[in-house]
Amino acid sequence: MQIRARITRLSLIAVALVGLVSGALAQPGAADRLYVMDCGHNAASDQSRWSPGVNVGKPIELSDNCYLIRHGGEWLLWDTGYPDAVAGNEVKTPVGTATRAKTLAAQLAEVGVKPSDVRFVAVSHTHGDHVGNVDLFPESTLLIQSAEVDWAFAPDKRPPFKLERPMRKLDGDLDVFGDGSVRIISTPGHTPGHQALLVHLPKTGWVVLSGDAVHFKDNWDHRRVPSMNTSAEQTQASFKRIADVMAEKHAQLWINHDERQSAAQKHSPEFYD
Ligand SMILES: [Zn+2]
Which terminus of the chain, N or C, has less C-beta within 10 A? Predict the structure, then answer.
């Protein structure tokens, strides 16, 4: 009797432990949460920089998002926005005036995440509005294309962040957690090593985070190639790649710099699951 009681008690404890552990694990093939974080804003003076010949001289407001993803007990940050030092200032950039309403550090703290908790930082590309806070995460593994590192750290350029850091250089796609839930999709053209992110969430479904493969919806609808892109041909191929992924997964396209779309989304500390 006594032995059976002990076995029952042990199995109850085992069940409770399994429950606790599985509560911290992602559903197979899906990440748990995605937080949209405000990583800056640009009041740009001429929209046609991104849409050659269209809306010439017309200003445009651009959002700048970071996306924090929880997968089981692990965190991945997608893009890091303008440097936190921009907060409280107005900074002239090649396209307009950059501002930052909140720091990334404060938004992470608000959801209880320390920079050292972030296992992976992945950046769509190395422009200043995406890599401004990479150095906030010296312990995280940076996921970036080899072609992007070679291009950004060319001897004639100012390094966008410290090169001596944990880094995994990619030559194409990557299934980040090995279960298909978060995939880096190689989409060169805006820069030589540009990449997008495909995320699967249990309720929200599949989402493509655009990076700068496209800057706003009208450009996506018309498949326009911005004048500053490093390759128009690669950009068109990447448009097709993204469209194919969206069709296959019935995925939404979340466009990082599309102010109207971003304003309609839930922002951290609220999240998508
Ligand atoms: Zn950008």
Answer: N
21 CA from centroid of ligand 1 (Å):
38
Instruction: Report the predicted TM-score, pTM, of the whole model to 2 decimal places.
Output: 0.90
Residue 208 Cα, ligand 1 centroid: separation in angstroms? 16
Q: Show the tokens assigned to 59.
A: 């200003």
pLDDT digits (tens, 9 = 90+) for 80-106: 999 999 999 999 999 999 999 999 999
C-alpha angle with apex 224: 244 to 91, nearest 5 degrees? 110
CA of 257 relative to ligand 1 center, distance in Å: 7
> Exposed/middle/buried for 146, CB within 10 Å: 0-12, 13-18, 19+?
middle
Q: Let me know: does 161 contact 208? Beta carbons within 8 Å.
A: no
Helices within the chain (DSSP H only): 2-23, 104-110, 128-131, 146-152, 217-222, 232-249, 259-263
